[in-house]
Automatic annotation (TrEMBL):
<dbReference type="InterPro" id="IPR020094">
    <property type="entry name" value="TruA/RsuA/RluB/E/F_N"/>
</dbReference>
<comment type="similarity">
    <text>Belongs to the pseudouridine synthase RsuA family.</text>
</comment>
<dbReference type="Pfam" id="PF00849">
    <property type="entry name" value="PseudoU_synth_2"/>
</dbReference>
<dbReference type="Pfam" id="PF01479">
    <property type="entry name" value="S4"/>
</dbReference>
<keyword id="KW-0694">RNA-binding</keyword>
<feature type="domain" description="RNA-binding S4">
    <location>
        <begin position="3"/>
        <end position="66"/>
    </location>
</feature>
<dbReference type="InterPro" id="IPR018496">
    <property type="entry name" value="PsdUridine_synth_RsuA/RluB_CS"/>
</dbReference>
<dbReference type="InterPro" id="IPR042092">
    <property type="entry name" value="PsdUridine_s_RsuA/RluB/E/F_cat"/>
</dbReference>
<dbReference type="InterPro" id="IPR000748">
    <property type="entry name" value="PsdUridine_synth_RsuA/RluB/E/F"/>
</dbReference>
<dbReference type="InterPro" id="IPR006145">
    <property type="entry name" value="PsdUridine_synth_RsuA/RluA"/>
</dbReference>
<dbReference type="InterPro" id="IPR036986">
    <property type="entry name" value="S4_RNA-bd_sf"/>
</dbReference>
<dbReference type="InterPro" id="IPR020103">
    <property type="entry name" value="PsdUridine_synth_cat_dom_sf"/>
</dbReference>
<protein>
    <recommendedName>
        <fullName>Pseudouridine synthase</fullName>
        <ecNumber>5.4.99.-</ecNumber>
    </recommendedName>
</protein>
<dbReference type="InterPro" id="IPR050343">
    <property type="entry name" value="RsuA_PseudoU_synthase"/>
</dbReference>
<keyword id="KW-0413">Isomerase</keyword>
<dbReference type="InterPro" id="IPR002942">
    <property type="entry name" value="S4_RNA-bd"/>
</dbReference>
Amino acid sequence: MADRLQKVMARAGVASRRKSESIIASGRVTVNKKVVTELGTKVKVSDSVEVDGLPIGKERKVYFLLYKPRRIISSASDEKKRKTVVDFFEGIPERIYPVGRLDYDTSGLILLTNDGELDNRLTHPKYEVEKTYVAKVEGIPTNDELKQLRLGIKINGKKTSPAKTNVLETDPKKKTSVVQLTIHEGKNHEVKNLFKAIKHPVQKLKRESYAFLNLRGLQSGEFRPLKKYEVEKLYEITDNKHK
């Protein structure tokens, strides 16, 4: 039985399926010592697959929840040699990578794994996994302005999915507010763009929860492994969304 190369790579913990496709296209993968760049390539269990000269193996799947500090890159590596989320896991032998991303100056909850299937489910928009953020914004948004976010607002010609909003506090003297926002889309700078669209730019941003997971018990820079039932629940949530 043969499987597509990017699927085999994702299953082995190299990277997510989509990231594996770009790794293949860049000529970093060999099958039986021959460079392969075609995405439809199928490989058998008996084939020897290497990435950057290193054979891929069948790693055990691991899952972690990290409280990402600000000014950390949400990537497995960085060309500018800046600290990445993976640098917090130096003692972990598996090749893990972040599920989705958080902006450089955004703190909060991010998941890391070597499970390509779960990564795909959690990052693909069709599964609609909810993420909750707390944003400190300029000014005090009116209910009408927040209603625009709750109904969906046009950004770059495309209407956003409805968001849930909740004003946590306001500071009339400093002219700032703290607003909780729940969305299921994962576009780049999504939360910042939403608040910018209603003319209340974000000053500070933190992701507080991802589906049912939260940061309880963790300080900035700390992480914990996911419990077995938590992994099962993430699969269950995305199974239900896909039906």
